[in-house]
C-alpha cells in the first residue's frame, strides 16, 4: 500500500507507558547452525571427568539483531548423530557478560575476569545438568535462573562462561562446534582443564568454538526504514508489535527533538506529522511501501513511531534517513 503523510495535530491521550515483554526469537552462535551441524567437535567440557572452566567468546557480529535483547535460554548439542543415554553433571554454573575485548586470540585476556564487563551475571547458579535418552542432534537447554540483557549494537563481544565441577558421568560424545581460518568463525574458546575456579586459562583454540543456541526476547518494538530516494517507493517495517496492534507513524523534517508528550520524550521536533493509522499483521509485523515526494530530496527524515504492545502503547526506536 502507499500513503501520503498528513500533519498531526496532537498525540492521543490514550498513549500510555511501556508494557511488558513479548515475542521470542532464537538463533545459534556462531550464526546459521540452527538446523545443520557444525564442522568441528571437542571432548571438552562434557566428555571429560576433570573439573573445567571455559569462556566461549562470540563476536558481536554473529548476532542477527541490532537492538538490545534479553537472553532467556541457552542450549548445547552433541556433534555425533547418535543420541545420548544418561549423563549427570552435579555442578554446572553459567555466567554471561559482554566483553571489553575482541574474541580473537590477540584480543582475549588470559585472565578470565579481565574479559568481563561490569554487566557480568551468573545466569545459572551451580546446579545439576542431567539428561536421559536424548535423541541425536537435539538441543539441550541448561535452564537459566534469570535472563541476561545484551546489546549487540554496542559492538562489545559476548561471553558464555561455564564452570563444570565434580563430574560423575560424561556424554560419551563430543560437543558440536565450528572451526575455520583466523577471523572467520566468529568465536573462540579459552579454558582451564583442571580447575573450575581457576583465575586464568591453561589452553585455548584459534577459531574453534562450541555451537550454542539462544532464545531471546526484544526489549522493545522495532522500526526499520529502507534508504529513501525522492520520487520512488521506500519500505517501512515494524516488528515485535501486538498481533493486529495499532501503529502510529510519526515524523518530522525539523529535527530529532525531543518533544515532551504524555509517554515521555518523543524524539522529533515540531512540526510533527503522522501517517494514517495502520495495524500489524497476525504475527505482530508490518511491511509496507510509501511514495517519497520529489520535494523531499536533500531533506533529513526523522521518524519516531508509537505502537501497541501488550495492550499499551510505547515508542519504537527512532530512525533518521537522508532523502537522496
Describe this structure in words.
It is a single chain. With 324 residues, this protein is mostly beta strands. Strand 25 (306-309) and strand 26 form a beta hairpin. The chain folds into two domains: 25-218, Jelly Rolls (Sandwich), CATH 2.60.120; 222-322, S-adenosyl-L-methionine-dependent methyltransferases, CATH 2.20.130. The protein is elongated and about 70 Å long. 0% of the residues lie in helices and 43% in strands. It has no helices and 27 strands. The strands form seven sheets. Strands 6-5-9-3-11-12 form a six-stranded antiparallel beta sheet, with no helix packed on it. Strands 1, 4, 7, 8 and 14 form a five-stranded antiparallel beta sheet that branches. A four-stranded antiparallel beta sheet has the order 22-17-25-26, with no helix packed on it. The protein has strands at residues 25-29, 40-42, 52-58, 69-76, 84-99, 121-134, 140-141, 148-150, 157-165, 175-179, 187-192, 203-204, 208-210, 212-218, 222-225, 233-239, 246-248, 250-252, 259-261, 264-266, 273-274, 278-279, 286-291, 300-303, 306-309, 312-315, 319-322.
- Strand percent estimate: 35-45%
Please report the distance between the alpha carbons of the first and last residues: 22 Å
Round the mean pLDDT to the nearest integer and report it.
90
CATH fold field value of the largest domain: Jelly Rolls
The CATH class assignment of the largest domain is: Mainly Beta
Give the total of beta strands. Answer: 27
Rg: 24 Å
Order of helices and strands: EEEEEEEEEEEEEEEEEEEEEEEEEEE
What ranges have pLDDT less than 50 throughout 5 or more consecutive residues? Answer: 1-22
CATH architecture of the largest domain: Sandwich
Task: Give me the secondary-structure category.
Answer: mainly beta
Amino acid at each position: 500500500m502507499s500513503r501520503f503523510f498528513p500533519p498531526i495535530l496532537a498525540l492521543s491521550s490514550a498513549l500510555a507507558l511501556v508494557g511488558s515483554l513479548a515475542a521470542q526469537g532464537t538463533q545459534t552462535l556462531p550464526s546459521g547452525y540452527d538446523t545443520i551441524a557444525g564442522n568441528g567437535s571437542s571432548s571438552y567440557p562434557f566428555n571429560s571427568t576433570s573439573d573445567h572452566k571455559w569462556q566461549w567468546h562470540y563476536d558481536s557480529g554473529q548476532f542477527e539483531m541490532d537492538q538490545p535483547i534479553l537472553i532467556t535460554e541457552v542450549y548445547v548439542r552433541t556433534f555425533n548423530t547418535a543420541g545420548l543415554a544418561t549423563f549427570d553433571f552435579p555442578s554446572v554454573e553459567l555466567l554471561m557478560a559482554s566483553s571489553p575485548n575482541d574474541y580473537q586470540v590477540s584480543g582475549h585476556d588470559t585472565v578470565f575476569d579481565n574479559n568481563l564487563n561490569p554487566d557480568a551475571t551468573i545466569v545459572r547458579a551451580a546446579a545439576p545438568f542431567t539428561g536421559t535418552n536424548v535423541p541425536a542432534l537435539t538441543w539441550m537447554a541448561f535452564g537459566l535462573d534469570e535472563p541476561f540483557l545484551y546489546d549487540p549494537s554496542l559492538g562489545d563481544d559476548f561471553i558464555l562462561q561455564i564452570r563444570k565441577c565434580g563430574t560423575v558421568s560424561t556424554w560419551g560424545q563430543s560437543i558440536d562446534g565450528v572451526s575455520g581460518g583466523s577471523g572467520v568463525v566468529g568465536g573462540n574458546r579459552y579454558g582451564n582443564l583442571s580447575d573450575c575456579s581457576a583465575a586464568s586459562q591453561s589452553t585455548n583454540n584459534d577459531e574453534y568454538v562450541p555451537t550454542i543456541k539462544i532464545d531471546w526476547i526484544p526489549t522493545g518494538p522495532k522500526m526499520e526504514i529502507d534508504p529513501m530516494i525522492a520520487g520512488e517507493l521506500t519500505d517501512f517495517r515494524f516488528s515485535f508489535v501486538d498481533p493486529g496492534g495499532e501503529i502510529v507513524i510519526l515524523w518530522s523534517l525539523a529535527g530529532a527533538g525531543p518533544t515532551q508528550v504524555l509517554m515521555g520524550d518523543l524524539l522529533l521536533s515540531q512540526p510533527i506529522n503522522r501517517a494514517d493509522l495502520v495495524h500489524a499483521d497476525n504475527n505482530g509485523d508490518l511491511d509496507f511501501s510509501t511514495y517519497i515526494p520529489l520535494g523531499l530530496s536533500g531533506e533529513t527524515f526523522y521518524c519516531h513511531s508509537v505502537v501497541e504492545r501488550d495492550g499499551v502503547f510505547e515508542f519504537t526506536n527512532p530512525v533518521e534517513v537522508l532523502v537522496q
